[in-house]
């Protein structure tokens, strides 16, 4: 469960974002849409604790992440928030499997290989697990990103334009994976997108103006 | 895990890494070799001049005299008359005088005529057999015995001069009667015999080639007769000759003041190692001898200092070169880390998203640099020792001087290790701090 209240944010003094409140329960999905420059990605980063808002509170289950210190925030994010980015980033020197293991190690201090393999299997890329991320196709890379975001059974799954670089078939697959897996793992799924292909699929929409 | 990631990152860009490691390896290897060489060189040089206050020899380069007579590396400056040398050898100032007569070699190893005092000076005990007593009996240094597989009872012919290819003296064969214990000094690479052996060997030598045998006739008529028929057999000759020659040697020492008859023989030696009872002599003799005789007296300590200071320039130059390479290594790591940092910003941001702390990123960059340092240092230390092994074997061929590559000078190499780590630390400092202050959101937005 994630809910926000009265979030404002500004990069400079002149420009300020007033971001709408949202509430998303575990297993349900919210779509955030809006034109470029309206602060979609900023909103997502604030939700993920990557940016600190000027005012307001973000409650994930019972923790207000705005009140956390930098260190606590890092630790909390690692354990409770999974993020899928527009372009997949990986530790390029590590294999797919090791990338997933690294995600669990950073958050919990333990390498959860069993879960990593299970996720790769669910995402149908288990045969790629010993390859380097750069050797995978973009669609496969995006699926690995999803696997990594789900590694630590996050309470919130954030996806930033997860389909913008994918073709129709892959885009559909990624969206269905995100929704089914977030339901399965009981994570609140928030997708930021301007991709019209997926807008219709969700009823729960917030549009930034 | 961070260390593992650092390790993987290093090898993800193998060319960069190999360049850095090569630079560090070269630098550490050079410094290691220098450190080891310098120390062992000084040790070898200083251990050999213990107990030698002055060296008396023929005029010429003082350094050459020291090198040839103390270290047995250079050609001798020439010969001196034994009788004129004896005047100084028996001076009351002198505590001990060791005459040296050099003439031949065996497979490149010098055969040196001397007295048992020489072994005593180097604290070389006889590990097998006995000391040389008669002519052509030799005591072999430990290393030679080992290398040439010489045993007590073996015989061999010497070659003239200091080149192994010199003309072979096949009139007399040397018999190994003893093998000296290892000392780590020049004596390990010498074959020692009595001085009269050298004289006798070369008397015949002269006789054969120039038809002159007046020396023989004067001091030993029987010998002279023998000389004409010496094709009959060397052994016979030797047996006849030995006791005689030996008495003669004693005679010389007993009646040292009575030099007139001995002068006529014109016996020559190469040099005399002098140890003084009265240290005044060390200061005054070089001048007195230079002014009054055709010989020179040289202080090995002074010459060695001179030599080391001459080497010192070369060693210093090499050392600066090595430090220069190390500086380049530092810069190369810095550039490598700095440029990859740009490419890896996203990676770092991602690690942070996954819950990595700032400190862990700082540590990651640092560990990468320090791992390179450790790897380079280990390679350098090993390579330096391999190089020293080669240097040692070639120095042994040319100078009969060997170095021990397995010695560790913890103090200096420890400092070198710390210096390496420091360079790695400094090179990684700026990239690491940049990684520490990375703005995740900005990085991901502008990806």
Commentary on this structure:
The complex is a heterodimer of chains A (209) and B (447). Chain A is α/β, with parallel strands linked by helices and 209 residues long. Chain A contains seven helices and ten strands. Chain A has helices at residues 40-47, 70-80, 96-108, 113-122, 138-150, 168-184, 196-199; strands at 2-9, 17-19, 23-24, 29-33, 55-60, 63-64, 81-84, 156-160, 188-192, 205-207. In chain A, strand 8, helix 6 (168-184) and strand 9 (188-192) form a beta-alpha-beta unit. In chain A, helix 2 (70-80) crosses helix 3 (96-108), helix 3 (96-108) crosses helix 4 and helix 3 (96-108) runs parallel beside helix 5. Chain A is globular, with a radius of gyration of 17 Å. The model of chain A has no long low-confidence stretch (mean pLDDT 86). Chain B has 447 residues and is of the alpha+beta class. Chain B has two domains: 2-45 and 313-445, no CATH class; 54-298, no CATH class. Chain B has 16 helices and twelve strands. Chain B has helices at 2-12, 14-49, 62-71, 82-89, 116-121, 142-148, 195-210, 214-219, 221-228, 234-254, 260-263, 280-292, 300-353, 358-399, 410-436, 440-445, and strands spanning 54-58, 80-81, 94-106, 109-114, 126-129, 137-140, 155-160, 168-180, 191-194, 268-269, 271-276, 295-298. In chain B, strand 7 (155-160) and strand 8 form a beta hairpin. The longest helix of chain B has 54 residues, at 300-353. Chain A binds chain B through residues 41-42, 45, 48, 50-51, 70-71, 74-75, 77-79, 83, 85-87, 89-94, 102-103, 105-107, 111, 148, 152, and chain B through 1, 5, 8-9, 11-12, 344, 346-347, 349-358, 360, 440-441, 444-445, 447.
């Amino acid at each position: 469960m994630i809910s926000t209240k009265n979030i404002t944010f500004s990069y400079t003094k002149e420009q300020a974002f007033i971001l709408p409140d949202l509430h998303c329960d575990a297993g349900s999905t919210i779509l955030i849409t809006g034109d470029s420059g309206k602060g979609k990605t900023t909103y997502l980063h604030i939700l993920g604790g990557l940016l600190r808002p000027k005012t307001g509170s973000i409650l994930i289950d019972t923790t207000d992440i705005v009140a956390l210190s930098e260190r606590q925030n890092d630790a909390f994010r690692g354990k409770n928030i999974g993020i899928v980015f527009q372009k997949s980033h990986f530790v390029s020197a590590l294999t797919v499997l090791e990338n997933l293991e690294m995600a669990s190690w950073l958050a919990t201090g333990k390498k959860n290989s069993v879960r990593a393999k299970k996720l790769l299997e669910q995402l149908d890329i288990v045969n790629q697990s010993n390859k380097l991320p750069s050797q995978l196709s973009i669609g496969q890379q995006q699926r690995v990103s999803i696997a990594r975001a789900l590694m630590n059974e996050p309470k919130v799954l954030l996806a930033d334009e997860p389909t913008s670089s994918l073709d129709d078939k892959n885009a559909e697959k990624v969206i269905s994976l995100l929704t089914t897996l977030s339901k399965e793992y009981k994570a609140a799924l928030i997708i930021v997108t301007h991709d019209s292909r997926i807008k219709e699929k969700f009823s729960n929409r917030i549009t930034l103006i | 895990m961070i260390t593992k990631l650092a390790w993987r990152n290093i090898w993800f860009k193998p060319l960069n890494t190999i360049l850095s490691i090569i630079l560090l390896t070269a630098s550490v290897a050079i410094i290691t070799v220098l450190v080891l060489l310098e120390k062992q060189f000084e040790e070898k040089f200083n251990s050999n001049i213990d107990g030698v206050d002055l060296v008396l020899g023929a005029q010429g380069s003082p350094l050459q005299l020291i090198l040839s007579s103390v270290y047995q590396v250079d050609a001798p400056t020439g010969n001196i008359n034994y009788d004129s040398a004896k005047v100084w050898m028996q001076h009351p100032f002198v505590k001990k005088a060791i005459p040296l007569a050099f003439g031949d070699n065996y497979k490149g190893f010098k055969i040196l005529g001397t007295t048992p005092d020489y072994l005593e000076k180097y604290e070389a005990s006889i590990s097998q057999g006995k000391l040389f007593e008669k002519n052509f009996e030799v005591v072999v240094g430990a290393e030679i015995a080992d290398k040439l597989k010489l045993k007590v009872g073996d015989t061999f012919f010497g070659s003239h001069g200091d080149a192994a290819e010199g003309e072979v003296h096949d009139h007399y064969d040397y018999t190994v009667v003893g093998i000296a214990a290892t000392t780590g000094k020049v004596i390990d690479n010498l074959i020692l015999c009595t001085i009269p052996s050298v004289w006798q060997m070369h008397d015949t030598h002269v006789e054969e080639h120039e038809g002159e045998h007046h020396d023989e006739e004067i001091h030993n008529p029987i010998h002279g007769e023998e000389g004409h028929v010496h094709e009959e057999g060397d052994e016979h000759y030797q047996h006849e000759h030995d006791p005689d020659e030996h008495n003669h040697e004693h005679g010389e020492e007993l009646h040292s003041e009575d030099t007139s008859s001995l002068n006529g023989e014109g016996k020559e030696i190469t040099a005399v190692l002098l140890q003084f009872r009265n240290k005044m002599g060390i200061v005054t003799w070089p001048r007195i001898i230079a002014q009054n005789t055709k010989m020179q007296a040289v202080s090995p300590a002074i010459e060695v200092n001179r030599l080391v200071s001459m080497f010192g320039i070369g060693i210093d130059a090499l050392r600066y070169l090595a430090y220069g390479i190390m500086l380049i290594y530092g810069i190369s790591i810095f550039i490598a880390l700095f440029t990859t940092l740009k490419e890896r910003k996203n990676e770092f941001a991602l690690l942070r998203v996954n819950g990595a702390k700032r400190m862990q990123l700082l540590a990651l960059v640092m560990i990468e640099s320090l791992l390179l340092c450790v790897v380079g240092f280990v390679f350098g230390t090993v390579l330096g020792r391999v190089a020293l092994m080669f240097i040692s074997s070639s120095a042994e061929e040319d100078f009969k001087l060997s170095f021990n590559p397995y010695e560790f000078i913890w103090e200096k190499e420890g400092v070198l290790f710390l210096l390496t780590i420091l360079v790695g630390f400094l090179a990684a400092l700026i990239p690491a701090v940049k990684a520490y202050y990375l703005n995740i959101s900005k990085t991901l937005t502008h990806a």
